[in-house]
Structures are given as C-alpha cells and as structure tokens.
Amino acid sequence: FLLQPESTMRTSAWCLLLFGALLCGLVAVLLPTGGLGSAGLTRRLLPAYLRVHRLVAEFSRQLFGRSNKEGFAEKNAQNSCLYFLFDDTQLQRNRHLSILGTVFDVSESAFYKPGGEYEQFTGRDASRNFATSDTGAESGSFSDNLDGLSGAQLADLFEWQRFYFSKYKCVGYSRGRFYHPSLLETDYLRGMKAAADAHLARKSQLAENFPPCDATTIDGKTVVYCNGALNLDPNNVMPNTRYPRIFYNKFDATSGCACVLRDMRSDGRVAVYEACSPDALQCTVLRPPPPLQVGQCGNQIGSRFWDLALREHASVSRRGDFDDSLGTFFRQQPGEGQALKARAVLVDMEEGVVGELLKGRLRGVFDHSALITDVSGSGNNWAVGHCEYGLRHREALSESIRRCAEQCDCLQCFFLLHSMGGGTGSGLGTAILQLLRDQYPEVYRFVTAVYPSEDDDVITSPYNSVLAMRCLTDYADCVMPIDNACLAGIAQRVQDSGRTAAGSSAAAAGAAAVKGRQAIRRDEQHSGQPAAEPHGFRPLSPAR
Ligand SMILES: Nc1nc2c(ncn2[C@@H]2O[C@H](COP(=O)(O)OP(=O)(O)OP(=O)(O)O)[C@@H](O)[C@H]2O)c(=O)[nH]1
Ligand SMILES: [Mg+2]
C-alpha cells in the first residue's frame, strides 16, 4: 500500500499505520482501566481515524502536490463521510437512507421516523425512485438499479444526493451496486456519473445559446421579452441583442421561449411567435382557448392534467417563473399575490367531484366563476344531461365560455373532455358542443371522448354512448376516442413495470406521468425557502 502510486491508497495506508499506532496506545492505556466498552469502541474511534486521515491527506497533498482524485477520499475530504461500510441488514437496523450508495443518517428527521411521510426511503437504497420521482407510495417498489435511466434523470439523482449531503450527516457507504467492499466506487457508479455529467454539459451548452426569455403580464396578456427590459427600440440593436423565439428543445422534449442572437434566428430549433415580427424584441403570446371538462370523468382526468402541467413546469423552470409555456394554460390573477388560475371551465351536474377538486391541493388554481355545477347529477341518463341540464344551464354555460374565450388571443378551437358512458359527460357534453356550434360556428371543436370498457359498471353506458356518438358526428370537427379498457391496461402495465423497477426508461417515465409525478419539486433544494417536506410539492404560487 505504501508504494501504491495512487495517492488515495497511499494516504489511507499511511493513515491506517498511524491510526493503528494510536489505537495500540489507547488500548494500552484505557483497557486496563475499563475506559472503553467494546460496543462503543468503533463508534468512538472513527472520528479520531477520520481526523488522522484528513491530516495525512493534507500532508500528502502538500508533500506530493497532488490531490486525492479517486473514490471515497475526495468525497470524505469534502463531505465528512464516515468510513463505514453498511450491508442491507445494518442499513435497515439503523434506519439510514442510502442514495447512490452513500448512506445518510436521517434518524433525527420526523419525515423518516416510523409513521413519517418518507419512512419508506429508510433502510434501503432507493436511488431509482429518486431518479424517477416515484415515492413508491402507489407502486410499492424500491430499487437502486439505474439501468435505462436518461441523462436528465441521472443528473437529477446526483442533485438529490447533493441535497442529502447538505442536510444530513453522511455516515458511510452501502456495499453493492455502487461501492466495492474496499469503499472504492464501482464502474457502475462511475458510468452513471459520466452519463449525468455529459447531460449537464450539453444542457449548459444549450442554456448558453438559448437562454430563457423573461415574461410578464400586460393587460391580461403574457408578453415575453429579452435583453432584460421591455419596450427597447428594435432599430437600435447591438451585436449581443437577443430576440424572443419559440424554442423546441428536443434534448429535454420541452418547448418554451428562448432568447437567440441575430445569427441564430434561422436555427431549425426556433420559430417566430405567431403575430410577432421577426425583428421584434418582445412578443405577446397568443393563448389558446381553455379546455372544457364535463362530468366526473372529464373533471377527474382534467384535474390530473393541471396537476401534471404544474409539476412539469416546476421541473423545467426551477425558479417557478411565470413564463409563456405556463401562460398557455394558466393566467395570473391581477392583484396581490397574482395567483395562478387554470384556464379551464369545469362542468358537472353533481357537486362531488368538483367539490373534491376545490378542497384538494389544487383548490386555489380553479377559478370559481368558471365552475358550473348542479346537485343531483344526470343519473347516468343521456337525456337528462342533454335535454334537462342542457337547457337549464345554457345561459350560464354560454356566459362562462364567452368569458374564457375573450381571454384568449387566437380562438381557433374549443377542446372538450368527457366520458361517453355517464349522463352528464355524454348528454350535457354534447349539448355544449351544440351550443358551441351555434355560437361559434367558425371555431373548430375538438373532443376527447372516453369510451366505456366491456366491464363498465354503468349499465346504461352503451345507450349513452350511442346517443352521444350521433351528436359527435353532427357537432364535433375532430373526435379523439379513448378506450377506457386500453387506458386501464396501459396504466396497469406501466405500474407493473414500475414495480419490477428495472423496466425501460420509457416505461418508468410513463409510470411517473400516469401517476402525475413526473416532476417532483425539490422544495428545499432550489428555493432557499423553508418547505414543508423534502419530497413534496411547493405550495402553488405564481411568478416565483
Ligand atoms: N378513465 C376514466 N374513466 C372514468 C373516470 N370516471 C368515470 N369514468 C368513466 O366514465 C363513465 C361514467 O361517466 P361519468 O363521467 O362518471 O358520469 P358523469 O358524466 O358524471 O354523469 P352522471 O354521473 O350521470 O351525472 C364510465 O364509463 C366510467 O368508467 C375516470 O376518472 N377515469
Ligand atoms: Mg357524475
């Protein structure tokens, strides 16, 4: 060891030698007096060993002019990890959390105590769950297998690890996939690190060429701009002046506003905003009309959409800024706090589902003036929804739709989401389509209709579907039918593949998307604000 060329090995060898001498001295002095019980021996001696190692590492660095490059020594010098090697039983017994093979003592945090919200992460290495934002609450699966994960997911995972370093004491390493028994990193861990680094390098290159635009709301409209100020003179430009463009980022599969230099304006990845001059330094974003969610099914699927949209945005815009992509689906309420409001019309003829939405986590997001409800529902009867409620609520529906339509800049289509099996979705949904046809004949009507499965529990669903289909034929311009049986099958398959945890990255991403957890917000990581929970979601607030 003493002759090893690697400074890490040499340092450790020297360290062990010195520590051994120290230990002998201690034992010689303390054992006869009964000063050290054997149970606490290792625990008491470890900090001393760590201190000796640091001293020797520093001495070695000064002497040989080299820093420790490899594996654990560098990490320890930076993060003060203890040199403990944990096996699975020890991890479980101590209720420690392992991420990428690094073990943290989370026992002091209420979140990880028995009954705590994140108890499930203790006693194991659930690195894959961190990377895929799967808390395991639904899937019940935990794994440290990172095969098939994307660079972005791996980069996220290493960020999680930094988070734990910043908040909890690192007490050692878990043996297995990420660390050899010698405490050196495995090739597997190095490969994952390299993939994450490559991702970050590409991402920072992209961020340099396509920095995000600033955005603000002027007269209720979203305006995107570059160069840090509004109302700049487009005739007085400098070589570093940037122009707002829609940027299609294939790398992250996202799109949004990016500021590009003059000679990058013809890049294939960018496009001019509709109704905005190519030389403009700011553009008003044209907002599409809001979706109309009708009935229980429409509102339940819709609510997951809003949830997912917010989480996706949170994962892309780490500061949670209000930008043009958020402006597509949300608007900022004028006044104090500038609350975010979903641009949706919620319709249901019973109060239950909408009431739940208004009590849930997204309660602040829905605009109460865009809710239309009744008390008793349509009783799974197309005719009640279509004829009775269609007539009774025609005025309110018309008014609500008009208000939403006025807030959008390019009224090209309406988008309706409902089931074909229930009374409200099929009956009132198609009555709304008829109303749109009458009042906005020039505007396209797109419908996503959920068709009942073979084992549907609504006995009248075949009748409702047939009656509604006739209306769709007459009033809709485009229908995207969704087979509920297929939907359930996909969800099941994705969940199963998530359970084995070694599924493909696509499956994992799909699982997270179905669960609506694609983008877990790292509250404490990014905000500097106190947050309620490390794995939870920041309370929604606008323009942060
Ligand atoms: N995929 C999916 N299908 C749903 C959901 N909720 C209900 N459905 C389906 O929708 C059909 C029943 O329609 P609902 O939307 O519950 O009924 P409704 O439109 O509220 O009508 P009424 O209850 O009669 O007033 C059945 O085929 C259900 O399987 C859901 O959350 N997801
Ligand atoms: Mg209902």
TrEMBL record:
GO terms for cellular component: microtubule. Residues 513-544 are annotated as: Disordered. Residues 326-512 form the Tubulin/FtsZ GTPase domain. Keywords: GTP-binding, Microtubule, Nucleotide-binding. Gene3D superfamilies: Cytochrome b5-like heme/steroid binding domain (3.10.120.10), Tubulin/FtsZ, GTPase domain (3.40.50.1440). PROSITE patterns: TUBULIN. One of its GO terms (molecular function) is GTP binding. Residues 86-175 form the Cytochrome b5 heme-binding domain. InterPro entries: Cyt_B5-like_heme/steroid-bd, Cyt_B5-like_heme/steroid_sf, Epsilon_tubulin, Tubulin, Tubulin/FtsZ_GTPase_sf, Tubulin_CS, Tubulin_FtsZ_GTPase. GO terms for biological process: microtubule-based process. It holds the Pfam family Tubulin. Belongs to the tubulin family. PANTHER family: TUBULIN (PTHR11588). This is Lipase_3 domain-containing protein. It comes from Macrostomum lignano.
